[in-house]
Amino acid sequence: MSQQHVFTYSTITGYFLQDEDSTEAENFDFDFGLLKKDYEADASLDPGEAKIGQWQRFEPEVTRLQDAATEGTVYKVLYLGRHGQGVHNVAEKKYGTAEWDRYWAAQEGDSTSSWVDPHLTDTGIQQAQTVNAFWKHQLAVAKTPAPERYYCSPLYRCLETANLTFTELDLPADRPYKPVVKELLREANGIHTCDRRSPKSSLLNAFPNFVFEPSMTENDELWSATERESNEELDKRIKLLLDDVFEHDDSTFVSLTSHSGAICSLLRVLGHREFRLVTGGVIPVLVKAVGGGG
């Protein structure tokens, strides 16, 4: 059995607003942030294509980067999406982050709600529906490339968000919405009961359109009631996820639906500046991966 390659990652800046230090995450309007600029790939456009949109010119620019790459180098555009507001997000706001981390996050709920693998709130559902409407516009008007592959955390709020975001879109026939659950894409693990996964069988029943990894156990054997992953441990896990995707998936445009902490980790591993997404937020990142030996 061949060993999995290990990649070194970097973010290719200069294409998106969120890559720039001057862009503040808290004031970032919901937008993919593609900068208006000329590309080297523009030189290969036919005269009749000179006035096509920015996204229509960005896709061949990514192709140009890949065609010019040395052996073992891979470029991908990752659409990183955070789940909509969950019951636990409301509880944390209610009690305050300090008290949430000190006591409430380790409880299974309070007198009004349960937040073990919580569902989306009505607001969270609306946020995901807003992203769905945004994608409809991007696909039809901006001609943004649709994801070729869809990966999702196994936690309920992400599965809900992905379905609400990507169903009923006018997707290209060769890019259907066929989501795959990746256990490694879950939130920072341990102590917080909101990050304890539901049984696999119940998730399969609730989300029959998802493909679940055969290695996923029925019950959550990764969550610990006494220890929480450090940032270093989370980054190591997230890198394993990225190595798996870059090694085995030849798609260029890839969607990842995950969590605040996991997306912060993804950005760290990818060499991107810190950029915290609000619930329901999405940003694309242009990534260069250079492969090494297994």
Provide an overview of this structure.
- The chain is built from 8 helices and 7 strands; from the N terminus they run E-H-E-H-H-H-E-H-E-H-E-H-E-H-E.
- The chain is an alpha/beta fold and 294 residues long.
- It has a 7-stranded mixed beta sheet.
- Strand 3, helix 5 and strand 4 form a beta-alpha-beta unit.
- Helix 4 runs parallel beside helix 5 and helix 7 packs across helix 8.
- The mean pLDDT is 94.
**Order of SSEs:** EHEHHHEHEHEHEHE
- Judging from the principal axes of the Cα atoms, what is the shape? globular
Computed structural class = alpha/beta
Straight-line N-to-C gap: 11 Å
Write the layout of secondary structure elements.
Elements: E1 7-11, H1 54-67, E2 73-82, H2 87-95, H3 97-102, H4 122-142, E3 149-152, H5 156-166, E4 180-181, H6 200-206, E5 211-212, H7 231-248, E6 253-258, H8 260-269, E7 282-291
Parallel strand pairs: 2-6, 3-4, 3-6, 4-5
Antiparallel strand pairs: 1-7, 2-7
Helix pairs in contact: 4-5, 7-8
Brief digest:
By secondary structure, the protein is α/β, with parallel strands linked by helices. The chain is 33% helix and 13% strand.
Key descriptive features of the protein:
8 helices; 7-stranded mixed sheet; alpha/beta; 294 residues
